[in-house]
Amino acid sequence: MVGYALAIACATMGSPAAGSPAARADAPSCIEYDNAYKLEWQASWAVYQAGQQNPDDGRSSIVVDLPITIDAPLDKVWSVYSDLQNDLGRHPFLKGLVTHRTCDDGDFQVIDFTALEDIPMGPITYPGHTEAEQRINEAEHYYTSESWDLPNVTTHQLITFTDNGDGSTTVNEHITFVADAALIQFTADNGADSHRAYQNALKADIENGTL
Predict the structure, then answer these.
(1) What is the mean pLDDT of residues 46-62?
(2) Is the pLDDT of residue 15 over 60?
(3) 3-state SS string over 132-173?
(4) For 109, which of 8, 44, 135, 181 is 20 to 30 Å away at the CA?
(5) What is the bridge-based pairing of β-strands 142-149 and 124-137?
């Protein structure tokens, strides 16, 4: 299972590991937001972090790479793609975003949030709450996203941006889905399909000038 270190989490859930970017940097500047989902995020993120301490917990994982080339310059694609708000109306499951905390330590901008989703599960739709943290490195044009939701599904994402030198940009989403063996294929297939749909919607709206 591929994991990416969490540089900044809620203070009640521990501090960054020694040697991590946040541990070396100055104290981050943070803004806290009060909302109805904040305690839920904190409790769920504690479960997520506990799971990270036990990577051999019996769950299965599937890794996918989802590259897409967008006919627009790197800076344009980066600014649109790394903005969570542009997911709304384009990610097929996503119905809302609730931000709990934003931090900036000079190297990374960190956003703690809950994604409100309607997830299709056969004949029914499951109202999921995905607890997540996005870490953005603007200087090096990449970001990571860590998320956890019921029933004990973890997703690790590394999104990178490559200037192709011809006015186009290739974005690759390297995603690791982790779930119980009975759910892993469904989780990976559903997750990959939703990300492809989101990528294609972003590509279209960047190239046609909507974004």
Answers:
(1) 84
(2) no
(3) EEEEEECCCCEEEEEEEECCCEEEEEEEEEEECCCCCEEEEE
(4) 44
(5) antiparallel
pLDDT of residue 77: 98
Strand order in the sheet with 60-70: 29-32, 94-104, 109-121, 124-137, 142-149, 153-163, 169-179, 60-70
Distance CA 184, CA 190 (A): 10
pLDDT digits (tens, 9 = 90+) for 129-162: 999 999 999 999 999 999 998 888 999 999 999 9
Do you find a cis peptide bond into 67, omega within 30 degrees of 0?
no
DSSP assignment letter at 18: T
Fold of 11-207: Alpha-D-Glucose-1,6-Bisphosphate; Chain A, domain 4 (3.30.530)
- DSSP secondary structure code for residue 17 in this structure: P
Q: Please state the domain extents for the chain.
A: 11-207
Distance in angstroms (rounded) separating the CA atoms of residues 167 and 184 = 38
Higher-confidence residue: 31 or 14? 31
Of 80, 74, 117, the C-alpha closest to 95 is 117
Q: Is 173 exposed, middle or buried (0-12, 13-18, 19+ CB in 10 A)?
A: buried
pTM: 0.82
